[in-house]
Design brief:
By secondary structure, the protein is mainly β. The chain is about 10% helix and about 60% strand. Strands 1, 2, 3, 4, 5, 6, 7, 8, 9 and 10 form a ten-stranded antiparallel sheet that branches. The termini are far apart.
């Protein structure tokens, strides 16, 4: 898994260094995540707050269309409360989305595409006791991010995105599929590229 993450990161950097009409960038912001369990008749899971941070490569395919691969760290999971005892599922992923973007020409853009997530850490905290639960979860997950962004003329932008979980994130599940869904709100900055500017 670690080799896959390294290869994905290296690929993103290589594309940014060699392709025409490319802007490398950084991003980060707030996560509001939850785990949707199908046929769940038990305790309702509540939204858990976290953060995300990473790299992007904004690659222009035409005047209005672009491809944007990213590699970023993301805190996900959910929480609940039973008999005044708080329980939190803390799931840390390295996510690698490849987004197709349509740019309207006024700074606004819409985006969607596939995303693969690599689980790097998982801990369940009940009250004040935290236990390692990584073996309980699958090492990879798949989701579909859909979002809206705005880029200023200074390279600074904002975006809002919802990641729809597609695959069950729990191993050996007994029919109640658990999917990670995450709303993300963040800031990003695209560094200038002389090749892109000259076009």
């Amino acid at each position: 898994m670690k080799k896959t993450i390294i290869v994905a990161s290296a690929l993103l950097i290589f594309m940014g260094a060699n392709a025409q009409n490319v802007h490398l960038g950084i991003k980060g912001g707030l996560n509001a995540s939850n785990i949707n369990v199908s046929n769940n008749s038990g305790n309702k899971l509540d939204t858990k707050l976290g953060f995300h941070a990473g790299l992007l490569a904004h690659i222009h395919a035409s005047k209005n269309f672009a491809i944007q691969p990213e590699v970023y760290f993301s805190q996900e999971g959910a929480k609940t409360k039973v008999a005044n005892i708080k329980s939190v599922n803390n799931l840390d992923y390295i996510n690698v989305p490849v987004l197709a973007q349509y740019m309207f020409g006024n700074g606004f853009r819409v985006e969607a595409g596939p995303q693969i997530g690599f689980l790097v850490d998982a801990k369940d905290k009940v009250g004040s006791v935290s236990t390692d639960s990584k073996d309980f979860y699958k090492t990879t997950s798949f989701s579909i991010p859909v979002g809206l962004g705005y880029l200023t003329t200074y390279g600074l932008g904002i975006d809002a995105r919802y990641n729809f979980g597609i695959t069950d994130i729990v191993k050996n599940n007994s029919g109640n599929a658990a999917r990670s869904n995450v709303f993300q709100f963040g800031l990003f900055y695209q560094f200038s590229n002389s090749k892109a500017k000259s076009k």
